[in-house]
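subagent[fold] <- orchestrator: predict structure for attached chain, return tokens only, no commentary.
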Amino acid sequence: MHNPNYQKMLGKRETLEIDFKSIEPALSEIAANLEENLLEIMEGVTHIDRIQTRVKGLDSLVDKAQSKVDGKFKYNVPLKEIQDLIGARIVVYYKGDVDVVREMVLKFYNTVEVHSFIPDSATKFGYEGFHTICNIPSPIYSGYRIDPLIPDFFELQVKTLYQHAWSQANHGLGYKPQSKLSYDEERKLAFIAAQSWGADSILSELTTKTH
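subagent[fold] -> orchestrator:
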């Protein structure tokens, strides 16, 4: 349960780890139920490669919980405020399919925030796509309201196959590298990103012309 002195202990991994492990089984159940719900809603929608949900890993959670703004911790109650503690991803074949799935999401879910990401750099190709924060449907969330640490929302991303593949490959290499990339290495990543963007765009154009 929520510790009233939580703010004083922000950044202490052991405290966050104890709280996280206390609700992790419930989070996993919610994620599994959300996946079933999404599969049901998207039944019959073509060009969907996969629908997956997950609970944020402890290391990633700790890193995010320790982030600061103007010298102050960004989150007072990380487990309740971090928006992607529970995440869902829908991967589709082509760019045009993103809009189809987006409309289904907006139809069936109450959205808190909606973003369509358009990168300002070729190196950010993997961040393209549709991102939204949705409330967990009441039938799923109702059984977990008793614990104030369990959030009532989840993050949902819709990406194409190319966007998903690039973001997964680039996450460890470019987004959070173990050591700073050299200028030439950054240029190589930019080249790969541009090639991936081009392949994704051309494939979508060809698909549109043949349907």
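orchestrator: received. Logging for downstream: The first helix runs from residue 13 to 41. The longest strand covers residues 48-55.
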